[in-house]
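Example record

One chain of 117 residues, shown exactly as stored in the release files.
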Amino acid sequence: MNVFASFVLAIHLLWILWVIFGAFWTRGRSYLTGFHILSLIWGIIVELSPLPCPLTLAEQFFEQRAGTGTYQGAFLARWLDRLVYPDLPESTLVIAGVAICVTNLAVYGWRCLKWRK
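Predicted structure tokens for this chain:
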């Protein structure tokens, strides 16, 4: 995998971590809260629709340009690839992805209710 594909893969992992744990990082930061809520909605849309993730498309583009395939190249790139694309059934990944997004949205709902009281 070339440098560009590895870079996009690292960004992809950071994006996934942002979607999963963003509710912890946004507490008291309204400008980040709005961005995280939009990220969660985008995550649900990508998981439940045929729309591809732009980061995945970018990774594939750079891999094709480099003439490499998945799991080739540097050790770090292989581990990043395994973190971003675990070897699990697609339905399991979709259910987990949507559940994580819904859980984060529930945290925001709870915060909103608490704030209103």
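Notes: The two ends are 52 Å apart (CA to CA).
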